[in-house]
């Protein structure tokens, strides 16, 4: 497991993360990891679409 620090420059992100964490009884770390994973998956999908690696049936 790697540890690193991220500084949120938008105070609304900090607030929303803590609100969601409390609302769903999960840790802020889990939410951040899920968000990063989703971002990476979305970027990968776009790259594959550009390269023609994804067929229409994949949606």
What order do the helices and strands come in, and which of them pair?
Layout: H1 11-24, H2 28-50
Features:
2 helices, 59 residues, mainly alpha
Provide structural commentary.
0% of the residues are buried. This protein has 2 helices and no strands. It is elongated. By secondary structure, the protein is mainly alpha-helical. Helices cover 63% and strands 0% of the residues. It has helices at 11-24, 28-50. The model has no long low-confidence stretch (mean pLDDT 89). The N and C termini lie far apart (32 Å).
- The tally of helices reads 2
Give the topology string: H per helix, E per strand.
HH
Per DSSP, what share of the residues sits in E-state strands of 2 or more residues? under 5%
Low-confidence parts, pLDDT < 50 over ≥5 residues?
none
Helix content: 55-70%
| Quantity of strands, as a count | 0
Structural class: mainly alpha
Could you report the average pLDDT, rounded to the nearest whole number? 89
Q: Largest beta sheet, briefly?
A: none
Shape: elongated
Report the radius of gyration as a whole number of Å: 16 Å
First-last Cα distance: 32 Å
Task: Put the structure in a nutshell.
With 59 residues, the protein is an all-alpha fold. The chain has helices at residues 11-24, 28-50.
């Amino acid at each position: 497991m790697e540890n690193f620090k991220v500084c949120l420059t938008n105070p609304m992100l900090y607030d929303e993360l803590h609100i969601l964490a409390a609302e769903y009884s999960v840790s802020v770390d889990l939410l951040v990891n899920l968000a990063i994973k989703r971002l990476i998956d979305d970027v990968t999908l776009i790259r594959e679409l550009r390269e023609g690696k994804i067929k229409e049936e994949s949606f």
